[in-house]
Specification:
- There is one protein chain.
- The chain is α/β, with parallel strands linked by helices and about 220 residues long.
- The chain has a single domain (about 5-90, about 120-220), classed as Rossmann fold.
- Helices cover about 50% and strands about 10% of the residues.
- It is built from eleven helices and seven strands.
- A five-stranded parallel beta sheet has the order 2-5-6-1-7. Strands 3-4 form a two-stranded antiparallel ribbon.
- Helix 1 runs antiparallel to helix 2 and helix 2 (about 25-45) packs across helix 3.
- It is globular.
């Protein structure tokens, strides 16, 4: 199965399975189901998967990103030297992929290259709907060529704040997302659940283990 068709079927199945779970539940367990789904998505993200998050820059999204960040930092303490990189909408090609370090080049008399953001750690693409389409295409191609070890330590969080008739996020990025999370109109109780959630990486990973995407769906 191609990368594109795999991602698309995964997204569709995840949304359908999550909806069925919530329809069969009472309100309390429905909220728990939502939290568990979002928590497992954060674990997937910390393990290098590409996640598409739809919703405003509100307290719930902040809480989810903080939980993801805490999991990744716990991983860093266990030997991963990379850090999470925030990429605003005005990020350009040289910043993302690297370019000539003019100051160092002038000082040394030879061309010195600086590493791009993509080489430094997992990226959080802020306001992805506003990114230049040519740049997101280049980023998508770079994702395609990640080695497995790079994908595990890099990953990508695509933050989508588009509404209604807004220009959508480039399909070149969304087609490469392992799963989609819609944080719009979710209960505020999820915020406290994330603030109080276990930050122990080993516990979190034991919950997920080496679960494949398909197994993850069947665990809901």
């Amino acid at each position: 199965m191609s990368r594109k068709s795999y991602a698309t079927s995964w997204i569709t199945d995840l949304k359908l399975r999550g909806s069925l779970t919530l329809m069969r539940s009472n309100q309390t367990s429905a909220n728990d189901s939502r939290f568990e789904l979002l928590r497992l998505a954060a674990i997937f993200a910390a393990r290098g998967h590409t996640i598409w998050i739809k919703g405003p820059a509100d307290e719930l999204r902040t809480a989810w990103l903080k939980y993801y960040s805490d999991l990744f930092e716990a991983q860093a303490r266990l030997g991963c030297s990379k850090r999470i990189i925030q990429c605003p909408a005005h990020t350009d090609y040289d910043a993302l992929f690297g370019g000539t370090d003019l100051q160092s080049s002038l000082a040394t008399g030879s061309i010195v290259r600086r590493a791009g953001l993509i080489a430094q750690g997992p990226l959080i693409i802020q306001m992805a709907e506003r990114w230049d389409r040519s740049l997101t295409t280049e980023l998508a191609l770079a994702i395609d060529h990640f080695e497995p070890s790079e994908a595990r330590s890099n990953g990508l969080i695509v933050l989508d704040e588009s509404l209604g008739d807004d220009i959508p996020v480039s399909p070149s990025l969304t087609d490469r997302c392992t799963l989609i999370i819609n944080l719009q109109q979710q209960p505020s109780s999820l915020i406290d659940q994330f603030k109080n959630a276990d930050r122990n990486l080993l516990t979190a990973h034991r919950k997920l283990g080496d679960t494949s995407s398909s197994d993850f769906l069947h665990s809901l």
